[in-house]
Amino acid sequence: MPDFNIDNLTVILLALLAALAIYHRFFSAPSPLVHSLLLSKQSEVSAVRKSGGTGIYRSWATGQGTPLTVRPANTVKTVQDVVRPPKADPKMKNTRPDQRCILDVQLTDEALAEIVRLVPLGIHILFPGASPMSASSIVTLIPPSPNSALPLLLLSLSATPDRPLAILPNPRLLTAALTGHGSHPAACIVVVFVDLLAEVVEQVWEGDGDKVGILVIGDEKKLQSSVVEEARRKGLTVHWWEEIWEVAESELADKVQLQDAHFSDVHSYYYSESENPEKPIIVKVTHMNVTAGIASLLSIFPADKRPSGKLRDVVASAVRLDTPLGMTIALASIWNGAGYRMIGSQEPTFDIEDIECVEHLTALADPAKDLPKPTILFITPKYHRALLDGLQFSYEARPWASLAARHKARDLSYGHVSRDGIWDKILWSGMRENAVGGIAGQKLRAVILVGDAPSPTALGASHLLLSLPLTRLHPSLYSSGPVFVSHFYDLQSPGINHVLKQVDMWESTEKSHCGPPASNVEVMLKGEGVDEAHDKGSKSIEGRVFIRGPSVLERVDGGGRVQDGWVDAGEHAKIQTNGTFIVDGLAK
């Protein structure tokens, strides 16, 4: 047997290597992003309850007995205040960019404020039908596409008390909106995309043609002049969107006196389809509902992580702009000085059967458009799945991926994740830049999943592949803001096998929690088994979700259930011991 001579230097080096390995394994754990005690109790429940229901649950940060927030700042009392940024301190350097991207259009704050000022002036001049004392509504039939949604956003920013909006998600609801059924003021204007002009003209003419005007968008070259002229011969009042600027800057505008909005005034009505196509769901949104929704949405971010002009943020949202939450995301981004872009089909259509999620995400990073990449994503489950599948495919092509994932998974087990490690520079950074157009690259700093929470396996894989916390936000048709939302730094999920190539992220049907109630929402569960669960001291209580708060909307179509101010959200959920909720589907 040969002799091995080991000198003192070799012994020292081996001892040093062993010491470093032991230190790295047992003593160099990263600090968690949030203390585990803050995640162990995320809701606070009232001391008393009524039979058949749970106590009232509030976010732990809000607490019981505290007034619920109704606006993001004292200066924001109506939607119009969103485009009135606070006056800059002359001693402070202006850190807002000169222009920001709003629905793929570069605008300064001054230009946006001027446009919002002109829109209601032009509309009142072109369509002078209603008197200031009698309210009428503006029905919008605008596809939720990045290329066509800007007029809808401008109309929302400039809505006046005497002409609230009635926002439709598809043309099938136009008949219901024109008749109104007493749910909202009668329609005086239909704002329609040019592709639907002929059908809308026919429908308006067959109804109250002399009382309802038509405003056409998406036809800058006036290619539909023949349809417009034919409608005018029938006695209809029809104008193009571009005419607004001509008349709003004329002398006629000096004679127009617009009503100032009050926080309790109605801002808009949102339609959605129900099981009965002739009886859509209609919810009423006041200015206070909108400002409360903005406050609730911004509260999901830590103070230094909110969308900001100082950080040159660009928010990209896959939540349709013709929904209350989708509009709130846009308004919150604008108020905070961030850019706002939409994720979706470039084609101005209402119903898309097969959503090309990868194509839509890649379009956000298209270098040919010369538009900024998003830094904050609000994505739906379909887009989240497409993003993770693209990242996993890129991950599988990397030779050192399993080793890098092992190190990342260790940090996640301690509640820590970052994009600054050595493996991020070696592998993760390049992997994310080369997948799905680089949308998940280094500029991205926050991802909010809007909709059903993913399975625990997919949640852990998301943390690993994105190297970012995944905030889960549960929306409702009856709320302008989130109903439930997880802690921004909540990384709790089952351990991820470092060999991610062997993991099917979407096999499990189990759902992770979607957090406690949002900051200004109260939640109560009702059901037959609630009393029995309380009597037995059950750790898991489940029932039908009822919500209340300043961001909760009133249903005005005569349907739904409202009990003592509580609105039935129509969903079933169960409460976990740490105060988080798992929403497992529609209530039966």
From TrEMBL:
<dbReference type="GO" id="GO:0005783">
    <property type="term" value="C:endoplasmic reticulum"/>
</dbReference>
<protein>
    <recommendedName>
        <fullName>AMP-dependent synthetase/ligase domain-containing protein</fullName>
    </recommendedName>
</protein>
<dbReference type="GO" id="GO:0016020">
    <property type="term" value="C:membrane"/>
</dbReference>
<dbReference type="GO" id="GO:0004467">
    <property type="term" value="F:long-chain fatty acid-CoA ligase activity"/>
</dbReference>
<dbReference type="InterPro" id="IPR042099">
    <property type="entry name" value="ANL_N_sf"/>
</dbReference>
